[in-house]
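Worked example 3. Consider a protein that binds DQA.
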Amino acid sequence: MKILVLHGPNLNLFGRRETAIYGLTTFADINRAIEEQARELGVEVEIFQSNHEGALLDKLHERIDDCDGCVINPGALTHYSIALHDCLKAVPFPTVEVHLSNVARREPFRHQSFVSPAAEGTIAGLGWRGYLLALRWLVESRQ
Ligand code: DQA
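Given these inputs, the predicted complex is written out as structure tokens:
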């Protein structure tokens, strides 16, 4: 089983960005935890981060026939990217949306997600462990 983990704009700064909201766990630590969990679950993960919307779309297109599920934290693209919405609907595999923070408790502009309608489910507010829960769900729900 192959799972694509996508991180959107500014997420490479986790660990040093608004730490009161996102915590001190670094981006590298998060990715290590994802890779460790993938090993435990016996699945392959590809992790990709970009600050560019089109690069994330290109990665999804590239893996359209070679992926069993996607975990995505789209960052701010969540709140405005119709292109990402369309792309997640176009690919044949399921997606789980992840946010470290509880976006529903934050500014009103974060309450709208263009990704949620294209995702199987959303995990928000549980910090970096949300990625691990999403990965486990994708694997277990397909076994
Ligand atoms: C985020 C929430 C978004 O609103 C924000 O733009 C981010 C991070 C999160 O993980 O909580 O960049 O996706």
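Take a moment to read the result before moving on. Residues 10, 73, 75-76, 78, 99-101, 103, 110 surround DQA (CB under 6 Å). Residues 27-41 form the longest helix (15 residues).
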